[in-house]
Design a protein that fits this description.
It is built from ten helices and twelve strands. By secondary structure, the protein is α/β, with parallel strands linked by helices.
Amino acid sequence: MVKVALQLWSVKEAMEENPEQTIRALSEAGYDGVQLAGDYGKSGAEWKKILSENHLEAAGIHMPVTALENTSELDHWISFSKEIGNTKLIIPFVDEEWRTLEGYKKLTRLMNAAADQVNKSGIKLGYHHHDFEFKTVETSMTGWDVIEETADPDHIHFEIDVYWTEYAGIDTYNLLDRLKGNIFSIHLKDSVEENGQKRTAAIGKGSLDLKGFADRVQTDWLVVEQEHFDDDPLEEVKPSAKVVKGWYE
């Protein structure tokens, strides 16, 4: 059975206003889980209760890159994960200062070191990219080249965002096939072009072969995300759960 989650960054305003009500609405819309972007000021016990009451599971947590350099911060996310049943901790973003040859080397060095602590707790550590990782940082080498070449393949996993690979002009099928053994999560969001500008869209409303991408990976969750909206974000993301599940009926 395919399990579909929503990355909660998609509905960040609703989560700030009323997390409980937002989570309930997502459950009613047919989502099986949610991927957290932080803890929204709530304890693991509070999150465990919210998820349980709405029959949802945790499909990963996006934690700040600062956790890689701060043992107590990393300990917090490990403990938090264990309390709510989460098995994936993911670095979702790095600022401009990291986006150099040495910066990416430092990033993977820190991830490799942190992975031991994370793995011992029964949790996997991974990285989520955007488009900037595919830009050249030295000669013909991109940030992604550095990450792929220096991240420990036995301990570091990837969350591939197919919108951003396509946006960056990457052959997504090739990337998914090449990294198949190390992809532990995938972000699905569609793409539309308006006035020469690309933007994200609800599943099925754009041009990307999302099912084709999803079928290329073996993962326990398909994670929906959307970043651009015409109307209320919470209402716009609701239909995507059933669209994805409909692919496999």
